[in-house]
Design a protein that fits this description.
heterodimer; A: about 900 residues; twelve-stranded mixed β-sheet; eight-stranded mixed β-sheet; elongated; B: about 110 residues; three-stranded antiparallel β-sheet; 4 helices; about 55% helix
Amino acid sequence: MKRIRAWFLRITGIVPKQHQEQDFSDELASHLQMHIEDNLRAGMTAEQARREAYSKLGGVEHTKQAHREGRTIPFIDGVLQDLHYALRQLQRNPGFTVTAMLMLSLGIGASVAIFAFVDAALLKPLPYADPTRLVDVAERGASFSRSNLSYQDYEDWKRLNKSFSSLDVYSGGGYLYRTSSGVEPVPAARVSDGFFRTLGIHPMLGRDFYSGEDQQNAAATVILAYNTWIQRFGGRKDVVGQIISLDGVPTTVIGVLPPDFHFAPRGAAEFWTTTHQHNGCEKRRSCHNLFAVARLKDGVSVQAALMDVTAIAKQLEIQYPGSNRDQGAFVQPLSDLIVQDIRPILLTLLAGSALLLLIACINVSSLLLVRSEGRRREFAVRGALGAAPIRLIRQFITEGLVLVAAGTVVGLAAGYSLIRLLLSLFSKDMLSSMPYLSHLGFTPHILGFTLIIALLAAGIFSATPALRLPTTAMREALNDGDRGSAGTLWRRFGANLVVLELAIAVVLLVGAGLLGKSFYRLLHVDLAFDPNNLATLFVSLPATTYNKDELIVTATHKIIDQVSTFPGVTSVAITSVLPVSGNGNTDWIRVIGHPFHGEHNEVNEREISPDYFKTIHAQLLRGRFLTQQDDATRPRVTVINKAFADRYFPGEDPIGKKYGGGDLAPDSVKEIVGIVDNIRESALNEDIWPAEYKAHNQDADAFFALVVRTSGDAKSILPSLSAAVHQVDPGIGTLNELTMQQRIDDSQTAYLHRSAAWLVGGFAALALLLGIIGLYGVIAYSVSQRTREIGVRMALGAARGSVYQLILKEAGRLTVIGIVAGILCSIGAATFIRKLLFGTHSWDITTLAAVSLLLGLAALLASFIPARRAASINPVEALRAE
Amino acid sequence: MGDKTDVWQGTLALMVLKTLETLGPLHGYGIARRIEQTSGDLLSLNYGTLYPALLRLEQEGAIESEWGLSENNRKAKFYSLTRTGRRQLAHEARSWEQTTAILARFLAATGEPS
């Protein structure tokens, strides 16, 4: 008890010092005074009395020191003294302090922000039970290495496999959800009954699907996503058991998913239902619309599971040659599926931010080095006065720690803002496909990462100036004449650091240049249509009302007519899939009259209204476009793209030729009436595939996109599009009104490229700035060190020009070495970002040349200022100053 | 008596407490003087070592201090025993007596033939 009390007093004793110090001085003074008086009374001489009193005390300073140590904890007290001194030192050099802290917090902030994303996307385990055992299972088609699974294949895979403890499927889709204000299309997911059990997720309210609830005769049930529950049902507990209307079907709510549940492949799904009602596709083995997720049995590797299902797929291929030819299997860890797009970009950004941090650290170290150079005398004096080397080094370490601590705090704040900023750049759709980013924050991981960076930086900073403290050389520093050796180590060391800095800046600049160029190329790929002044909107006709093709066709015509009456609208059309959305939605074909051995001929399939090509300004190469007369009463016709013609009719005129499905079923046979240019159906960075455009009038679909060409800005018409559709029938669902240009700019590919280019560009700009500051610092310091030498040269008749030459030559040498090293490194580094490059080589000459030129010019500027200062040195003053 | 004995480890605090119990509030110099006198000048006390000991006792709550005037009107810091200090003194005195008694018994024992 009393020990604790004593320690507590000692710890608090660290703080108020002045008063206690004074108090004890007074006490000692009075002690001595009383002692001396007693001695005088005993008959000693004044001198004797004094001496005896002091000697009996055993030294005033000694006593004070013992008392001080008793009052506090000596080690901490020393640290505090160092800290106090360090703060005073930093305060005395606000320029140095602010620069160093700015650089540090910049580097730390950038690294922390990027690491937060890396952590959320790549490091944090998926929020499922034992996520490493979960795999993504799909088929391997001829055109897609990962393609959808057909329902019947799924049933066979599930029955025959020996690798999975469970295998469940999911598919996307949406429902028209009836609210009090009408119907609203809502994104949803359909899953097999064991889906959530496979993931290891339990509803937080209500129950999971029973097994068997995905069978044909099961009642319609739905589990709500957490946000749906909160936003649409006010978070009421009695929602379980409620009946809601999905696509006009009364459906019972049976549960609510937990708030942290997310499943990136079906990111925005609000409703989770079972596959109890098979759609037309699921009744055919040849129709592929599902993906599967499975849990591996203990001890089964992904590779073994792949071999297992591949063997099953082979067996099915023999059993069902008509539908399963060339359908292999595909298995990968679920985490790979979820992060595949973002991984290379995040790793690139992480590398970029690490390089930036490195530059920042180098700059701060060299600043410290310069400063320690300037403080050699101070330390020599302290050493000569008896300070142990360890104490001096501790001083450096303390100063380094103070800098790093402050830099880290500011850096964390900067990192936090940067995270917010980056998140705000994502569109809502992007975020729903990357739900793992929704809970981005300072997790223990991130704080740990920050701590590691801070410790590394602190290590570097306390080591750098300590390097400059060879104790033997300290005495020399006291001699005034010491000049020769002072700068050599610095020059060697500091100069190398600058070369490293410049090289890193080159790497980042080249990376940014390449990514920027890729992005430019991406946005300027040939679309073969005009995206300007196009407004788009998705339309969903409720299946309960529009249950016949004729009804759909009539409604479509009404919608087109209605929108056409809007002022400023020049042309209106529909398509089943908008351009630039990605290859897919394919049809398998067989050309009549061509030899056929069961080949897998896959083409993009689109259904369009007659005015579609005219509306998007696509160019007809041969034949004719579809017309209003191509309806259900007439033979089926199609327009194909140039890629189709080149691929399947080389050296032949396709017009008038007929083709159909793999089995040439009579209703699948179509006649080619026209060839259109290669409209970019794919994502911007994907290949052009053969494509067929069928008449919507002959092959109606209840879900389609409306495309509207306007004479003015397409944005102005967006708000009124839904209203126009609802005038035809308020029960029709509409969603996602955007201009075509917005769609292209916001497409995942464009977005990822743009963000990568901007971020790496930002890092590169900062790296350039820091590198140039570093070079400036080195040259300026070198000039200050050589003031006397330059003065002598000039006194001996050297012209100003030759002084310029002297300084610029040194800067030029460093710059050239830095640039050459940087170019070499960046060619190597660029191969790592090959995946992110589009239409650009990793050794793109123009980029390399531009970067070299930019850096060269910037370096020239940075070294010109100190060179000018050197040239304007007054020789007389320079000599006198020493 | 040429050699003086240094203060044994751990006994200084006990002497300080006892002195303060006997004489009441006293300043550092007075305590030092008193200890030397009581020892019959057999103890060699470095007066400076007294102050850390006083600080320690004060931190432990055994004594408290207050500025006051000395017998010849000089400003001095007076230390006095607290209740905790009294208890500590009683406790430590008892254990010290026990120790010395045991030691004395050892030293008094003479070898007896077995």
